């Protein structure tokens, strides 16, 4: 009953809080990396769909 009146308190472990902060930062960094790689991949796919203008204009030697 005393807990209900005072409120439930959880012991705070500073090491665990620091680890949580570091893990959340790492997750954000990894999510940003995944987003960048997906954009790069999409751009490469788009580039592959475009005709190769440089190669098409280059003269070839027919023997």
TrEMBL record:
It comes from the Bacteria. Residues 20-50 form a coiled coil. Keywords: Coiled coil. This is Uncharacterized protein.
